[in-house]
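Limitations
The structure tokens in this dataset are predictions for the assembled complex, not deposited experimental models. Users should treat interface geometry with appropriate caution, especially where small molecules or nucleic acid strands are included. An illustrative entry is reproduced here so readers can see what is and is not provided.
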Amino acid sequence: MFTIDQLSLQLPMYASWWKREWATCLNDVSLTFATGEVHALVGASGAGKSLLAYAMMGLLPAQARLQGQLYYQGTLLDASRQRRLRGRELALIPQSLSALDPLVRTQRQVAWAAQRAGHATESAWRASQQALDHYQLNARAQQAYAHELSGGMARRVLTAMAHVSQARLVIADEPTVGLDPHQRQRVLTALRELADQGKTVVLITHDLRHALPIADQVTILRDGKSIETAPACAFQGAGTSLSSTYSQALWRALPDNGFTVSMAQPVDKETVVA
Amino acid sequence: MPRIAMRLGRLALVLLCVALVSFGLMMLSPIDPVDAYLGPQVAQVSPEQRALIAERWGFDAPPAVQFGHWLRQLASGDLGWSHVYNQPVSEVIGQRFQRSIVLLASAWLVSALLGFALGVMAGAKEGSPLDKMISTYAYLTASTPAFWLAMLAVLLFSVTLGWAPTCCAGPAGVLDQDVTLTTRLHHLVLPVATLALLGIANITLHTRTRMLALMRSDIAIHAFAQGAGRFDVAWRHGLRHASLPAVTLAFASLGELFGGSILIEQVFAYPGLGQATVAAGLRSDIPLLLGIALFTALFVSIGNLVADTLYGVIDPRLTTGGS
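Predicted assembly:
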């Protein structure tokens, strides 16, 4: 339902104040996200995961150089269509908790998200109530400010804001960072539920282990390139059904799978630590 | 409640310090209160009589005793006698402040509201033609001296065009109680406009900076991801965030506004507190000068107190220990 066709992205970089260079952040990425699936984008930090999400939503800074095409439900997705579909068909659960406005109570923020998705004032308030109840945020949390919420609660508020939009494609950018196992499980289950309701979920994470239990497809990104897309079930045993050596090395580097780092294939340190 | 008590206690302490410093400055100044009191009659008074007056007024006592004496009088509500106006100081301040507050309050309100609105509009879209226009205007007026602008305004609107009166709070030769409201307002327009024009720039520039930061923040990107437009983000998030620096500045600038009003009242010959300050200074009216210094300190401190309280209302993170 969402296709990325040979997407390349360059961002300006100022080596000194008169000299502008272009850093290639995404290089010829082609991907397809199918309806009802959780599609995990896995890669080390700097691999271009979040930028890919921003490119899909059309939230890149104006000076970015973008090549390639995006298709949503078979139709070309250009900047003006992105603007129209944002918040209605396409939703983003941002990575940083600072995306919540510290000066606005939780429920009001969720209601604004609903209004932006086309609800009238009255129904937006009702929808926000329902969405927050759905994610088990009680009356006190609904009237709280962002700094009064725990990390897990703030995550669920962000998820509720994406949920209330009724978007058919939800991109979750690192939704489990900094959460304890219990909270993490809650957030991941919520994403799986969204996919089971027939939505498409793009799960961006640096942690392959947490993505696998709920993902249908996994794409490994490295240095702005898509290394491999494989079904989640391919990540098992010795990982021999994976076609690229990087994916295999990544899989084997996990603590449960031998914890081995092959010398022939240098792996980003951060990925191993994660 | 204890927080309010603490703030009031701090306010009293500030006033005490201001009293101490201004009293010290007066002691160090070359002004002789007896000379100032006698004025031109000083030639007809013998040195013995002068010494008698000084003794009567307690000038032979050490400064600390004099200060204590003055403080005790202040505490009982007696600010002293102004020989320039031949009235008790509290009455002079009261009458003059009534005039000044109209000028100050309207200039303050206009500059705060207009400055905030312009800042939000400019900051909502960085580099837009509207932003460039507003920024240029703000930078220009921020670097304009108040008295110069006031003199230009008098020259253009009062002398050349004849739209506004050149001076005072009412027409010359008309009793104060006979001046109608419209005439009063007519006399107020030019000073208020000049004072407001200068106040706007500061608030506009600070509000704009906060708006620019907000429009680049995660909050704004998240709102854009929800399908919000620039206007939506500026209206819902921007107004809240930008009001913090605007409120700070609006209340913290009460002192500056007061200082500006001294110049403006002088140029427009507006009989307010600012003009009385200049008169008291030039004619060595020590009780009036001290009274005005204390009153101004009180006025500015209350402004800061209000700003402090308003922060908590706008930004819930600043309410410590609240429920």
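Some entries come with short summary sentences. For this one: The radius of gyration of chain B is 24 Å.
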